[in-house]
């Protein structure tokens, strides 16, 4: 029987890539090596790599498209603080994650290819390469500015998670709800941000968001949404997971839930909340597929973003084992194609098409210029004498600026 499953998978892989939407290896390089991948004997194509991710492990796992998460942690020492004017290095650190991902692709061109479109990803796969698009994990990484979001898009991000483990000016995090804080959902600025993501062609990712944020986004988004790495709340009562009523709305939205491999989101034994296995993962896949259809499930591993992996899911080489388990439980080839990657690719392509339609209806280059009302605009006093743009333009915002003692 195993030979039959292997033969089925080989046939499916002829035209269907395995797509994973969440991997934190680039962040691991940053924290371990300070982005210095030409020192210390680092070789991404070596069997000496002990982290979850390496080229040999990706190849063994038959991965065709691997989104590189541009994760940078929330910078406030108080993760529940709502002081969003905190000065931090988050944009710099995010750019370093983008840089390390692109340099990995440049250093191993026979295996990796940086891509920015769905068609480029599929093309790279048919060239025998692993496509690597970018993402960010939390809008704290744009520091309240849609201008930063637009520049991240230009640099290659193709999905943006609205939150990590902190609130931001746009939306409420699941971690805040777990801590007993109120669920404020999506803010008015968040509504404008979703519109801008739809216009740009950035997939909206609802993993890490609060329950109300999920519903608020589904009320607003004109494009299908994703959960880049989440599981079913009905099986594992964790705020990071997705409740049934939200899942049903994901079906209506034609979105996709990329199932996370993190043990705490999979474990079904309340006495052992971190003990999970590959069988728990397959349970979550089948639960969501049974509720809303196989067209709405995929893989969102979270490898190298977790320290301990579930049994049977030790690294990125294990995707075929998950697929064999699904086949064993009765999933059809068409079901498996969607799970492997076709569902995510469908959403990605839909987001691109909707972006083109939205742009065609707006004046060329017209962006959404909403800004966070709580932002502090600080300048040195000597800059009060700068020229006006047009008569009276300095009277618009200058009175509300905070003028700092001159540094000249």
UniProtKB/TrEMBL annotation:
SUPFAM superfamilies (UniProt xref): Metallo-dependent hydrolases (SSF51556)
Keywords of the record: Dipeptidase, Hydrolase, Metal-binding, Metalloprotease, Protease, Zinc
Protein name stated in the entry: Dipeptidase
Cofactor(s) the protein requires to work: Zn(2+)
GO terms assigned for molecular function: metal ion binding; metallodipeptidase activity
The enzyme's E.C. designation: 3.4.13.19
InterPro entries: Metal_Hydrolase, Pept_M19
Biological process (GO), any one: proteolysis
Signal peptide region: none
Family: Belongs to the metallo-dependent hydrolases superfamily. Peptidase M19 family.
Top EC class of this enzyme: hydrolase
Catalyzed reactions per annotation: an L-aminoacyl-L-amino acid + H2O = 2 an L-alpha-amino acid
Pfam families named in the record: Peptidase_M19 (PF01244)
């Amino acid at each position: 029987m195993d030979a039959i499953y292997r033969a089925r998978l080989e046939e499916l892989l002829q035209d269907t890539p395995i797509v994973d939407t969440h991997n934190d290896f680039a962040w691991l390089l940053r924290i371990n090596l300070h982005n210095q991948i030409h020192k210390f004997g680092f070789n991404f194509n070596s069997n000496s790599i002990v982290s979850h991710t390496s080229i040999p492990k990706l190849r063994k796992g038959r991965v065709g498209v691997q989104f590189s998460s541009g994760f940078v942690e929330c910078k406030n020492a108080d993760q529940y603080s709502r002081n969003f004017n905190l000065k931090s290095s988050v944009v710099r650190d995010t750019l370093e994650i983008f840089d390390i991902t692109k340099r990995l692709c440049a250093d191993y061109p026979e295996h990796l290819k940086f891509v920015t479109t769905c068609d480029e990803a599929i093309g790279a796969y048919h060239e025998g390469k692993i496509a690597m698009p970018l993402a960010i994990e939390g809008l704290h990484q744009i520091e309240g500015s849609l201008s930063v979001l637009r520049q991240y898009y230009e640099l290659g991000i193709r999905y943006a998670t609205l939150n990590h483990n902190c609130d931001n000016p746009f939306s409420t995090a699941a971690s805040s709800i777990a801590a007993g804080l109120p669920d404020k959902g999506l803010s008015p600025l968040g509504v404008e941000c979703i519109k801008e993501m739809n216009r740009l062609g950035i997939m909206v990712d609802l993993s890490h968001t609060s329950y109300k944020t999920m519903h608020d986004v589904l009320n607003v988004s004109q494009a299908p949404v994703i959960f880049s790495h989440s599981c079913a709340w009905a099986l594992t009562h964790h705020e990071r997971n997705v409740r049934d009523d939200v899942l049903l709305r994901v079906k209506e939205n034609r979105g996709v839930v990329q199932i996370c491999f993190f043990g705490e989101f999979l474990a079904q034994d309340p006495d052992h909340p971190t003990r999970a296995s590959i069988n728990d993962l397959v349970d979550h896949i089948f639960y969501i597929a049974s509720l809303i259809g196989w067209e709405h499930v995929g893989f969102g591993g979270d490898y190298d973003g977790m320290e301990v992996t579930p049994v049977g899911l030790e690294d990125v080489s294990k995707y075929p084992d998950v697929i064999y388990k699904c086949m064993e439980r009765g999933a059809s080839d068409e079901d498996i194609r969607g799970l492997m990657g076709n569902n995510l690719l469908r959403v990605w392509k839909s987001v691109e098409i909707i972006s083109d339609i939205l742009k065609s209806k707006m004046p060329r280059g017209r962006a959404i210029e909403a800004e966070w009302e709580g932002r502090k605009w600080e300048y040195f006093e000597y800059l009060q004498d700068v020229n006006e743009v047009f008569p009276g333009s300095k009277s618009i915002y200058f009175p509300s600026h905070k003028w700092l003692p001159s540094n000249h």
